[in-house]
């Protein structure tokens, strides 16, 4: 579902991030005056800093994966392969003082930050398109549905404004995320770094590494304090949740017998040429069905992060986090395309609104008429109208002769949309301000 949108979290991207992190560590040592600047430059040149990639560092995912089995993670063979690619006098500064988790956690934060930047771009596009949609259909009255049944009048714009609020809130969550570098050494005490460069250099080294990579400086090692992963997971699940709600409504409202919405370019069927399937919605919903379980797995891994290095819980994070990022990337890309091309069929909206022959305002009838003619009489009117009698005639017949009630307005769905219009205005105002 994410073809063209998952390069940021692919195996090659993780390999590049691992290499980049190792180079950045050598550069961080040099920035603190511990490693020779010449060694950092030699390592950078040999491994292509800052444009690391297979064409520069010469490593392949296949060979690294094969060599990773014995050590349980890819960093152990990576270090050996990198040292073979840098000048002999600089090799000592590859992976100097670090443990495998330092490199792998930092690399995962690096690819996560890149992926979230892409997700944020797709969400920006979705928010803008939803603001336009909500504004354009601000006053178009439609049937609201609760428990699958017609309930009261709403507007197409109010429904879109609800989607907008959910997506915007999710965008806020991902915008507030932190992506800290990881550097703690074997037991999370930075003892190895103190031994190599002294206490002051060791204390400053994590922030120096973060600066080299454009990540956030950690306040402490987080080897077994996994909030950077779980907060990221929660934000990604919220993104996919918000997009799943949108996609679920679009899929429902694009059903043939409803027909209020249609995707801009629906997909066809291999067997039924008349079909225009809501493919974007289907793919988003597919992601929404899987994302929460991935988030739960990451929370479980965090809770079971035993000792100073977990025995399996940490390892379970790697594929889980990347898959969750992949789903969020795909869902957000599909959502941006979906909303930008979404079509509203005003005729179908009006047709469906009229299906209950005026009973869409039954709640209003109960509120207004019960004090005048009694609740039981209102119930009789509604029951009669449900079997086919004319609702307007029934109401007029039940009203006292002296009543000045405007029955036509009472039965007009457009007059019973409450605060739908200002709610739309409130929802799209921040979007308008962003555009300005």
From TrEMBL:
- Record keywords: Lyase
Xref: Gene3D superfamilies:
Fumarase/aspartase (C-terminal domain) (1.10.40.30), Fumarase/aspartase (Central domain) (1.20.200.10)
Recorded GO MF terms: lyase activity
Q: Domain Fumarate lyase N-terminal spans what residues?
A: 17-290
Cross-referenced Pfam families = Lyase_1
Q: InterPro entries under this entry?
A: Fumarate_lyase_CS, Fumarate_lyase_fam, Fumarate_lyase_N, L-Aspartase-like
Highest taxon in the source lineage: Bacteria
Regarding protein family, the annotation reads: Belongs to the class-II fumarase/aspartase family.
**Name of the featured protein:** Adenylosuccinate lyase
């Amino acid at each position: 579902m994410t073809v063209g949108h998952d390069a940021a979290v692919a195996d090659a991207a993780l390999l590049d991030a691992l290499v980049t992190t190792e180079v950045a560590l050598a550069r961080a040592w040099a920035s603190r005056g511990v490693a020779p600047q010449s060694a950092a430059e030699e390592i950078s040149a040999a491994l292509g800093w800052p444009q690391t990639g297979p064409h520069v560092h010469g490593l392949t995912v296949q060979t690294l994966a094969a060599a990773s089995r014995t050590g349980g993670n890819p960093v152990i063979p990576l270090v050996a392969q990198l040292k073979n690619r840098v000048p002999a006098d600089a090799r000592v500064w590859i992976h100097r003082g670090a443990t495998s988790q330092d490199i792998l956690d930092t690399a995962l934060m690096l690819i996560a930050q890149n992926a979230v930047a892409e997700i944020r771009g797709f969400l920006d596009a979705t928010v803008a398109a939803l603001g336009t949609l909500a504004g354009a259909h601000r006053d178009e009255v439609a049937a609201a549905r609760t428990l699958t049944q017609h309930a009261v009048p709403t507007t197409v714009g109010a429904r879109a404004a609800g989607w907008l609020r959910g997506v915007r809130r999710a965008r806020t969550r991902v915008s507030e995320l932190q992506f800290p570098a990881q550097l703690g050494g074997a037991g999370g005490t930075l003892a190895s770094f103190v031994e190599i460069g002294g206490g002051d250099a060791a204390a400053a080294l994590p922030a120096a590494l973060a600066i080299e990579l454009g990540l956030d400086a950690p306040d402490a090692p987080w080897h077994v304090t996994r909030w950077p992963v779980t907060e990221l997971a929660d934000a990604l699940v919220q993104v996919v949740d918000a997009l799943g709600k949108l996609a679920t409504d679009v899929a429902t409202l694009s059903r043939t017998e409803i027909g209020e919405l249609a995707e801009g370019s629906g997909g066809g069927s291999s067997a039924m040429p008349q079909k225009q399937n809501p493919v974007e919605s289907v793919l988003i919903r597919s992601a929404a069905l899987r994302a929460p379980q991935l988030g739960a797995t990451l929370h479980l891994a965090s809770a079971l992060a035993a000792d100073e290095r977990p025995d399996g819980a940490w390892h379970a994070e790697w594929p889980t986090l990347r898959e969750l990022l992949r789903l969020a990337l795909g869902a957000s890309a599909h959502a941006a395309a979906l909303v930008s091309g979404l079509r509203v069929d005003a005729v179908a909206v009006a047709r469906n609104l009229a299906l209950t022959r005026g009973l869409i305002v039954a709640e209003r009838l109960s509120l207004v008429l019960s004090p005048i003619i009694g609740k039981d009489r209102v119930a009789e009117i509604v029951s009669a109208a449900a079997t086919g009698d004319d609702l307007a005639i029934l109401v007029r017949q039940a009203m006292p002769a002296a009543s000045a009630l405007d029955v036509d307005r009472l039965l007009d769905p457009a007059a019973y949309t409450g605060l739908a219009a200002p709610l739309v205005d409130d929802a799209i105002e921040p979007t308008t301000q962003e555009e300005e």
